[in-house]
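Dear colleague,

Following up on yesterday's call, I've attached the two folding results inline so they're easy to grep. Please treat them as preliminary; we haven't cross-checked anything against experimental data yet. The first protein's sequence and structure tokens come first.
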Amino acid sequence: MVNVRVRGIYATALTRLLVEKGYAIVQPSEKIAVRFGLTVNNSPSDVTIKDSDDGDGVILIGSPAETREVFEQLTSTIPFTFKTLSKVELYSVYLVRIEKAENGVCTADAGEFKVEVSPCKETPGDKAVVGVRKAPLYPGERVIASKGFRLLGKLVALLHGEPRVTFSEHIRDPELKARLTTLAASRLMGTGLGIHFRSSARFAGSGELLNEIDTLLGEYRRLMARVKEAEPPVKLYSGELLGLIRFTSLSKAFLDDVRDAVTPTISGHHSLRSMGLGDLVEALEFSVMHGCGRDAASKGVHEFLLAKISEERSIRIKHVKPTGEVLELVPGRVEKVLRGPDSTRIIIKRLITGSGIYDGLNVERKPGDVDYMVIMLGRPYIVHNYYRGNTWLGSYINVNTPPEVSADTVKYHDLLVDVSVTPDGRINVLDREELDKAFQQGLIDSRLYQYALKAVEEAVGNPAPYLYNPSHVIQ
């Protein structure tokens, strides 16, 4: 059975999905243990799942086979995701051949890929043992390594080139740190190696820790003996697989329903929490627990945010791409919020300050032009309507998942393909090949790919509802 540790704002929903599939949840938080009636199991994890830095999804890291299994399980179950797995294992160790050296940075041949080594004093033709410290998640990213490397256990990691004792951020007790330091010294004195105590070390006994240190020392000696005989490039040691799953607004809505089966959850729970509104969400869900209806609470927070957006002078716009880029567009001013029978539109006025050409329109961009940006809540479009004075220059319909909003931010996940509409009535589909490529590379799932194609078809068939000018909807 695979042991999985889950942390972060998606923990309840993910735990439910994993428990249903038979995975063992280890080191659960007190809240998770109570919600699922779990007997606390503090065994080391095979896979750890935690929030990504921006809160927009989760990172998976752990033993390669188990991490791949859990990654594929989650991405096949949760629809409409951006997803990627590292092609190279984090902390894996290679014997490489230096090909180029410049300013303390080397480029080396690791076999199936090139690696950047820093710092590096070697010269071309030399061989070196390196450990991967940045594993690329997206096509085109570099593998970055250093002369220091680590050998991983479940409880500790041995550090070559870093002769010191370090601790997981979860190990805070001074007495425990002192005991672990003494224990490490009893095995590592004189070896020149350092040690890192992983979070699971706080649950382990001295005998278990010493056994793992001894095992890793044996692996280290075998690795160094192999270095003397091997010719580069060769992989010496496997590290940990790294995966990233980004949850779009559609994914988060699915996870809201999963979580609601465990504990009262308003619609928009995960979107709002990912945008820093956890306290507001918690307050509303307490009200649901005490008799307020879920639908009423969900509608209340939606109306509250629309009211706050209407008061904002400036609003941030975050554009998230399947290729890992997170772009922040030039902020705009909220002009108005338009409510219709089928959707709500937020109109944002953005002043153009740069020069160039408008994408897909083949029209010169000039300072002083205005972009009336239409945020279509619940719909798969963000629309840019460009004007010079009273002259409509054309519109650019960006295809994306339905936008997420907070009081001062709009965030959407771009689906790469777009539609342009010109004043003479021409309608063009743009960058379809980018969408196809992202799907072929596995960066978006099949359901999201089909969703994007359907959105394009609708926009091409009748773009008029998505276009806007300051005085009327263009027919």
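Below is the second protein, in the same order (sequence, then structure):
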Amino acid sequence: MTDTTSLLAAVNQPKAVEQQIAEFIASHGDPRAAAPASANTPGALELVIRGSRVLTEEGEAPREIGIAGGRISAIETLGTGLQAPDVVTLADDEVLMPGVIDAHVHVNEPGRTDWEGFWTATRAAAAGGVTTIIDMPLNSIPSTVTVPALDYKRLVATGQTFVDVGFWGGAVPGNQEQLRALHERGVFGFKCFLLHSGVDEFPPLTPDALQDYLETLAGFDGLMIVHAEDAATIDGAVAPHGNRYADFLSSRPREAENLAIAAVAERARRTGARTHILHLSSSDALSTLRSAKADGVDITAETCPHYLTLTAEDVPNGGTAYKCCPPIREAENRELLWEALADGTIDYIASDHSPSTVELKDLEHGDFGAAWGGIASVQLALPAIWTEARRRGIELATVSEWMTARPAERIGLRNKGRIALGNDADLAVFAPDDEFVVDATQLQHKNPVSAYDGKRLSGVVRTTFVRGAVVDNEHPTGRLLERGED
């Protein structure tokens, strides 16, 4: 039997890697057959949840939710008296909301499991009310750029997921012919970079190559998601070094995002392909997105909790826990991102959970040039956003829409994202008025590093249900998802 160690040792020899992956899959079986089957056969109610505050499609209201076969089978006015073997009655301070869908999570397994893995990432997700994550194709070894690599990742994930997990494929030089096969195998779309990704095994596309790949994706309605920063602009900036955050911020100027997003929008316009901008941080690019959308270009965008809740002015020198790319920008930039969420220019929020080891974050020296860029926040995304949103008078129902329904609609999760009849019973019991102070050592992701360490946040997730079952942190029952499945 081929083991993981020998496979990873051959990572720089593509033919050897593919051969070893094939041997691993052959010895372990079809990863889709190995995944736990969904019950999803509604019959008599198995669970009823009663609450005075339930976020349904009609808004917040007192409701009883009946669940059977992992799906929502009944929605009635509180007091109707739905019956089931198990009944949960929420406390007066609790809200039942759809489980969060985090469409941007770097799990890093296989290959960099000292950074993160499916067991820890999905347990952290569940602790934060997240019921579905979509795993990024890079930072794992091998990257998810071929069908064998996807199958290998699915096998590794099997039996390790506390929430449901889907997968993005990768778009890198040389794998254009792999895209349709990956699409048919169930990936939700394809990620590419327009500059160095940070790991050599996932090289970038040029803008012209991006257009070629978009033409391919347009042929089968595939979705391209883009890390949009212009390589030449960043190459021309002063490289980051030392512990001054201002110097790091200057090394990733807004212009890099602005130019790259304009290039993506133009190529989406030419090809008609579906495109999505990842982790938008530059408010200067919003006008480009507004113009493209007004012209009917099929382009969407996400932003992240750290861009909406943190500011450059608050990042201490040496605070490499805050390093991410694109960077956290100034307070006035943050205000414009909130406005763009409100008017629909930015479509949804995703965490960009991008963890690493403590050593790679270089916390001891605080060198922004040496430290790995990424913020681990899948567990904290909901309370972080809610803390800032409630300060601005934004309702929880609106926050839920940004973090559940909208990502579900864009990536094609047809039975998730809303408390609605027939949908998966993916739910979070949320206490919006509770507060807590973040202790990075108590978070569920693998390494105790967090940009939110020591911060007071509002909103505590008390219970998470995945397809009607309470997540218990010991018995993983999450499913591996494929695009287009019911």
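For the second protein, one point worth flagging: The mean pLDDT is 93.

Best wishes,
A.L.
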